[in-house]
Amino acid sequence: MSHALSRWAMIGAMATLLASCGGGGGLFGSETEQQRAAREQGLIEEGFIDDPDRATLFDLFSGADDPNETVQVNRYLWNASLEILDFMPVEAADPFSGIIQFGYGTPPGGSRAYRATVYVQDPALEARSLRVAVQSQGGAVSRDVARQIEDAILTRARQLRIRDANL
Predict the structure, then answer these.
(1) What would the CATH number be for the domain defined by 75-165?
(2) 47 versus 19: which is more confidently predicted?
(3) How far, CA to CA in Å, does 118 sit from each of 15, 30, 94, 150, 164?
(4) Would you say 132 and 145 are in contact if contact means Cβ atoms under 8 Å apart?
(5) In the predicted model, is pLDDT for residue 139 greater than 80?
(6) How sure is the predictor about 157, in pLDDT bands with cuts at 50, 70 and 90?
(7) Using CA atoms, how far apart are residues 30 and 39, in angstroms rounded to an integer?
(8) Which one has a higher pLDDT value, 69 or 165?
């Protein structure tokens, strides 16, 4: 008898639970938007559901980038960097991020070997769009050397743009 009674109690509890699911209230009753967001964030942090804002390596290949957020590199600064620092071997170049990494090379008429990293960070042909880091085999060099290289790259980039405008 007690077994049948507990069975009917369980069925009654299940029926009550299912009845409360109707009417849009759900298991959480009249939950506010803030409470729902907090509950969802807790589930994301615990790993029960995926974070919709999480970026992974595979997102690079999805082709779903917003064209308004895509990084653009100024082609004149890019080409001028390659021309001005042509005495250094290119170790790595990524036109999507705007980084060119050069290996050690000795400038014409010089005795010390240098390496450099150029970062073209904006599509505008301006000084703020270009950053150059230079290092010798003995360590870091003065900021003036990097600024002189930046000035040479900017001058050459402007020459390239003027040349293209005259075509």
Answers:
(1) 3.30.530
(2) 47
(3) 69, 57, 11, 9, 23
(4) no
(5) yes
(6) very high
(7) 14
(8) 165
Q: Distance between alpha carbon 93 and the CA centroid of its chain, in Å? A: 16
DSSP assignment of the chain? -HHHHHHHHHHHHHHHHHHHHGGGT-TT-S--HHHHHHHHHHHHHTTSS--TT---GGGGGS----TTTS----HHHHHHHHHHTTTSPEEEEETTTTEEEE--BPPTT-SS-EEEEEEE--SS-SGGGEEEEEEETTEE--HHHHHHHHHHHHHHHHHHHHHHHT-
153 touches 84 (CB < 8 A): yes
Q: What angle do CA 74, 129, 144 make, to 5 degrees?
A: 125
d(CA 148, CA 154): 10
Q: Tokens for 23? A: 């009417």
Q: Which amino acid is at 164?
A: D
pTM over 0.85: no
Rounded to an integer, what is the distance from CA 160 to the centroid of its chain?
Answer: 29
The two three-digit tokens of residue 46, written as one number: 């615990």
d(CA 151, CA 44): 49
Q: Where are the domains of the chain?
A: 2-54, 75-165
